């Protein structure tokens, strides 16, 4: 039997890249996946691939920066599937640029789509997760790099998510809700286009990854999320797991 059989998983930002890879991996292990995001066409593409492989999924349009959208989407998921067992907070608008280049609106957008959305989704899902639920939040190794120039606003948002996750793990452990973070380096659509373009910058970047490659969204990242949400990780909570080929901590 698939290890997530009869589990209902919510994945935000599931229309492409890491979110889609996670949704595919969860569905492959039997989870029914609610794929959330802003663009219906991309959400439906993820669901179509899941259906093609014999899994079950449904798209739910949701702007994660809007509290009303979050509450409405979660209630729609529960009305459709009856429960929520897994929450993966992946959606994030990425504010990149040096600190003097980032304006207040860009900084706030990163916070609203990242830690604030994560905070809201965790609270909205908590009543359904109690008893045997798992949350996986996406952080980033951006704050761990020796040179985080150009990543300050993004790193701040992702570190806030880690702080929220640790607090939730402490507060909700008594309810058997586990909360962990991952820090992935994966072949998102933007990363794929850049790597395929080649050049010295790409070679230099890959040289910072001890394993010499960028991770696959489904096989490298999604499978780790499956593990964290499955029975073999039932005694793991409050942790942050880098999935980056050793880049953040070995180089």
Automatic annotation (TrEMBL):
Species this chain originates from: Zhongshania antarctica
GO terms under biological process: fatty acid biosynthetic process
InterPro entries: KR_dom (IPR057326), NAD(P)-bd_dom_sf (IPR036291), Sc_DH/Rdtase_CS (IPR020904), SDR_fam (IPR002347)
Gene3D superfamilies membership: NAD(P)-binding Rossmann-like Domain (3.40.50.720)
Family: Belongs to the short-chain dehydrogenases/reductases (SDR) family.
Name the UniProt record assigns to this protein: NAD(P)-dependent dehydrogenase (Short-subunit alcohol dehydrogenase family)
GO molecular function, a single term: oxidoreductase activity, acting on the CH-OH group of donors, NAD or NADP as acceptor
Domain Ketoreductase: 7-197
SMART domains: PKS_KR
Source organism, top-level taxon: Bacteria
């Amino acid at each position: 039997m698939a290890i997530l059989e009869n589990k209902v998983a919510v994945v935000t930002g599931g229309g492409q890249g890491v979110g889609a890879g996670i949704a595919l991996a969860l569905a492959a292990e039997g989870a029914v996946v609610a794929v959330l995001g802003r663009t219906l066409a991309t959400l439906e593409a993820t669901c179509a691939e899941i259906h093609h492989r014999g899994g079950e999924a449904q798209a739910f349009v949701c702007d994660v920066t809007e509290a009303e959208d979050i509450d409405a989407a979660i209630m729609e998921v529960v009305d459709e599937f009856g429960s929520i067992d897994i929450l993966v907070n992946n959606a994030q608008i990425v504010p990149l640029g040096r600190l003097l280049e980032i304006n207040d609106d860009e900084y706030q957008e990163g916070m609203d789509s990242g830690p604030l959305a994560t905070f809201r989704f965790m609270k909205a899902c908590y009543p359904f997760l109690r008893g045997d639920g798992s949350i996986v939040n996406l952080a980033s190794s951006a704050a761990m790099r020796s040179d985080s120039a150009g990543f300050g606003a993004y790193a701040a948002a992702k570190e806030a998510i880690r702080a929220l996750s640790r607090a939730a793990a402490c507060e909700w452990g008594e309810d058997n809700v586990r909360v962990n973070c991952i820090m992935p380096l994966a072949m998102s659509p933007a990363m794929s286009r850049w790597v395929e373009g080649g050049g010295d910058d790409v070679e230099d970047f890959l040289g910072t990854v001890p394993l010499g490659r960028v991770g696959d969204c489904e096989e490298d990242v999604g499978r780790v999320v499956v593990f964290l949400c499955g029975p073999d990780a039932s005694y793991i909570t409050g942790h942050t797991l880098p999935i980056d080929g050793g880049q953040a901590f070995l180089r």
